[in-house]
Design brief:
11 strands; Helix Hairpins; 4-stranded antiparallel sheet; about 400 residues
């Protein structure tokens, strides 16, 4: 069956629209995949950047508390030359005031006559006073007593936020010829948590997680043992204590013994090298994941997944809008083309109709004029008849032209 010209054109237009819709669908699918790949890469990059910044926060925070603790440990030679309390007190007094603010309690645990006595520092009176062991230090006392008797202490005998520094002495060799210097005393330091979370931590967070004085991330610091117990919050409130975080690290990681080496070994009556008792200038950081605090961070605008998802939706909406605009433009162009063709067809029909209407009166007038030139025009009645006919047809032609 042969298709007419309008039907053929309609079929062509339909095929073009179908092809265009298929191409736009394929482009939309490819765009969705490509935007997804870009979004995932951006999400990974942002997460790595945030984790790197948090690692720097952890490094600086732990380094500062380790350096502050090491600053209060005297050299073994000073303790041997001076009285024990005077050596520790002199070391404390020589420390900067900012270092002293790191600690809420400074004490000495001294073994005497089988007992482990505690001497708390009175910073105002500049003296160590004998005191009872705090209730929170009960496990610490038990652990130090076990170490003093030669046995290993129990796990986690040290309270969170407390660190002890032993000073070893001399001891004769045992039956196997080994020499294990016993602990002479322990310097016990308890960190001031209020100072750490209200002064030290905000300065470090401002250094790494702020831009132009404005926080770029929402940070929550909680207890590692109890994530529901919030310690400090910084920045916009977007992170829930039990919610998902873009990155996290542990803080407040203190090393049990920052001295170089181990117990001294050598001949009888030989004093261990002083370097074995001196604190390191930069104590090594402990392994991550063992801190008393856990720092969780999210972007201020929400989680990185939500930010990237919003950007992905915006890009998809923009791309889909452009594709729809392209389809709408093509449809409008097709409709305009079909309208123009229809108008041209109407014009042709109009011209044909007008030509036919004009041809009829002109033919009548031409015939009447021809008859007037013949012998029929000799009769007055015929002349009048042809004149009337010419007049009528002329009026019809005039009316048609006016239309």
């Amino acid at each position: 069956m042969k298709l007419s010209l309008p039907s053929r054109r309609a079929w062509i237009y339909g095929a073009v629209l179908f092809f265009l819709a298929a191409v736009c669908g394929i482009l939309g699918f490819l765009q969705y995949r490509w935007i997804g790949e870009v979004a995932n890469a951006e999400n990974q990059r942002l997460r790595q950047d945030l984790q790197r910044e948090l690692n720097l926060v952890r490094r600086d925070f732990n380094s500062q508390i380790a350096a502050a603790a090491s600053a209060l440990v005297p050299i073994a030679r000073d303790v041997e030359r001076q009285e024990r309390e005077k050596a520790y007190l002199a070391r404390y007094q020589s420390a900067p005031e900012t270092t002293k603010k790191y600690f809420s309690r400074v004490a000495l645990a001294v073994p005497e006559k089988g007992e482990l006595n505690l001497f708390l520092l009175d910073s105002r009176a500049h003296i160590f006073r004998k005191a009872d062991w705090p209730l929170g230090w009960a496990k610490l006392r038990e652990g130090l007593g076990t170490r003093l008797s030669g046995g290993p202490p129990s796990e986690r005998y040290r309270p969170e936020g407390v660190i002890e520094f032993p000073r070893f002495g001399r001891n004769p060799r045992d039956a196997e010829g080994r020499r294990w210097p016993p602990e002479q005393e322990w310097l016990i330091l308890e960190f001031d948590r209020d100072y750490l979370r209200n002064v030290v931590l905000p300065e470090i967070l401002q250094r790494y997680l702020a831009e132009a004085g404005q926080s770029q991330y929402s940070v929550v610091v909680s207890e590692t043992a109890d994530p529901w117990q919030e310690v400090y919050r910084w920045g916009p409130k977007t992170v829930e204590k039990s919610g998902h975080a873009d990155a996290r690290v542990t803080l407040f990681e203190v090393e049990a013994n920052p001295f170089r080496g181990g117990p001294a070994r050598g001949t009888d009556n030989a004093s261990p090298p002083a370097s074995q008792f001196e604190p390191q200038e930069q104590p090594p950081l402990p392994l991550p994941g063992h801190g008393a605090w856990t720092l969780s961070a999210n972007h201020a605008a929400g989680s990185l997944e939500s930010i990237v998802a919003r950007a992905r939706r915006r890009n998809l909406f923009l791309g889909a809008s452009l594709l729809l605009l392209l389809i709408a433009t093509v449809i409008a162009l097709i409709r305009f083309t079909r309208g123009a063709e229809k108008l041209a067809e109407m014009q042709m029909n109009f011209v044909s109709g007008i030509s036919h209407e004009l041809r009829t009166p002109l033919s009548v007038i031409r015939a009447a004029g021809f008859n007037l030139r013949t012998k029929f025009a000799r009769e007055p009645v015929q002349v009048e008849r042809y004149g009337n006919l010419i007049q009528d047809e002329s009026e019809k032609l005039t009316a048609l032209i006016e239309q």
